[in-house]
Write a structure and sequence with these properties.
Blueprint: E1 2-7, H1 11-26, E2 30-32, E3 40-45, H2 50-66, E4 71-76, H3 77-81, H4 83-88, E5 94-96, H5 104-114, E6 118-120, E7 142-149, H6 160-164, E8 168-169, H7 172-184, E9 189-194, H8 208-216, E10 222-225, H9 235-241, E11 250-252, H10 260-266, H11 272-285, E12 290-297, H12 304-317, E13 321-326, H13 343-367, E14 372-380, E15 385-389, E16 395-399, E17 407-416, E18 419-424
Parallel strand pairs: 1-2, 1-3, 3-4, 4-5, 5-6, 7-9, 9-10, 11-12, 12-13, 16-18
Antiparallel strand pairs: 7-8, 14-15, 14-17, 15-16, 17-18
């Protein structure tokens, strides 16, 4: 039988889909892509915003409409956070949460036996253990490894602690075994990810540095981190990471807002000034460091002056790239109970912030012209270009027959949209 996985959301979800895919293959299933005919379609959902929920519903309905005889499974964060909404999505034949997606094939077998719809969502509990592992990563030159799950922060706008449970870390022995397999498989780069990644080890007496140092000790040419919380990046963390040869100087540090009033209402644990000082330290300690971030606009308490301060702060930091998104109320959070800003105002602020931060992005890309950089090539395109990324995650494309999966020196000659354009440096 053929099974296909359709993944929405973050790299943690990508990792978990990979784990389910490997288990499917071990159970005798043939893995298909989501645009092929399959007997089973698994939608691994995201619920970080209302738009994420909309995409999840759309995907489930599309698979059932296009493949009415196939089984459609809904799992991931959306049913975990909003089980009633997931249950009402009748096009899903099987609904389970991310806490018990290890039961996927047990539930599929039960469905074949009884022929009735199955709803099986288990709540996260204090004391849950970290679970899951992979041995490869399909059709990629970099492997993503989940080392942490859950979040204890309870930001006032965020549903994730409810959909992911409390912080739990992968035991270092298990991480060592998993990284060794991926290193032996020949992956040039490994990306360590988590729901609150920088909290790794806080429950088992370790630090995020222990995980990065372990990866650095193996045969990976590059070790990269996913999204980090600014108040967890201490001077000691910076000192330890700066000593690692394979560590990539790309820091995606969640900002959310550059306005202290908004940060306080969000229940974030730092000030704009503290964030700014961190950026200075990172740029001082890591040559060619790139700092990217997420910025929210239209939070319920954000006044016009607060928004203006948010924009000024983004310009002050000069982020190499910014993901801008309008606030989306999530039922069950404190912010959802606050008086809401009109959608049109949020959209206007979003357009302004995107315009301002894209100007900074273009300036950064243009500043790379003339530099010689190391690029890990990953994807070949039909127009003759091959694309890849530098250590600080600058996208680069080069025309020619260059090998995927290798790191080559490239001289940047131009900029095309969101890409630097280069030629192989002889």
């Amino acid at each position: 039988m053929k099974i296909a996985f359709y993944t929405l959301g973050c790299k943690v979800n990508q990792y978990e889909s990979q784990a389910m895919s490997e288990k499917a293959a071990a159970n005798g299933y043939e893995i298909a892509s989501a645009d092929e005919e399959a007997d089973i379609y698994v939608v691994n959902s995201c619920t970080v915003t209302a738009e994420s929920d909309r995409k999840t519903r759309q995907a489930v309905r599309r698979f059932k409409r296009n493949h009415p005889e196939s089984i459609v499974v809904l799992t991931g964060c959306m049913p975990q956070a909003f089980p009633q909404d997931a249950e009402h999505l009748e096009q899903a034949d099987i609904v389970l949460g991310n806490r018990n997606n290890s039961k996927l094939f047990e539930l599929i077998n039960s469905y074949f036996s009884c022929g009735r719809r199955i709803i099986d969502i288990e709540e996260h509990k204090n004391g849950d253990k970290f679970s899951g592992g992979i041995s490869g990563f399909d059709r990629r030159t970099r492997a993503v490894v989940k080392i942490e799950d859950g979040c204890n922060r309870f930001c006032s706008y965020c549903i994730i602690p409810y959909s992911r449970g409390r912080v739990r870390s992968k035991p270092i022995a298990e991480l060592k075994e998993e990284l060794h397999k991926l290193s032996e498989a020949g992956f040039a780069e490994v990306v360590l990810v988590g729901i609150n990644l920088s909290a790794y080890g806080t429950d088992i007496g370790l630090s995020i540095c222990d995980a990065v140092e372990l990866a650095d000790s193996m045969n990976f040419k590059r070790v990269r981190l996913g999204s980090l919380e600014p108040d967890h990046i201490t001077d000691e963390v910076i000192k330890r990471l700066s000593k690692l040869q394979s560590f990539c100087p790309q820091f995606h540090i969640s900002l959310q807002s550059g306005c202290d009033n908004t940060l306080k209402a969000m229940n974030r644990h730092y000030s704009a000034e503290e964030y700014s000082e961190l950026c200075k330290k990172l740029r001082a300690n890591f040559p060619d460091a790139a700092i990217t971030t997420d910025i929210m606009v239209g939070f319920p308490t954000e006044s016009e002056e607060d928004f203006a301060e948010n924009v000024r702060f983004a310009q002050k930091i000069g982020f190499e790239k910014v993901h801008v998104f309008p606030y989306s109320p999530r039922e069950g959070t404190k912010a959802a109970k606050m008086p809401q800003i009109e959608k049109s105002v949020k959209e206007k602020r979003s357009h302004i912030m995107i315009e301002k931060t894209e100007e900074i992005r273009r300036e950064f890309l243009r500043s790379q012209i003339g530099k010689t950089v190391d690029v890990l090539f990953e994807t070949r395109h039909s127009d003759g270009y091959i694309e890849g990324y530098t250590g600080n995650y600058t996208p680069v494309k080069v025309k020619g027959e260059l090998p995927c999966g290798e790191i080559l020196k490239v001289k940047i000659t131009d900029v095309d949209g969101d890409f630097c354009v280069g030629e192989k440096h002889e």
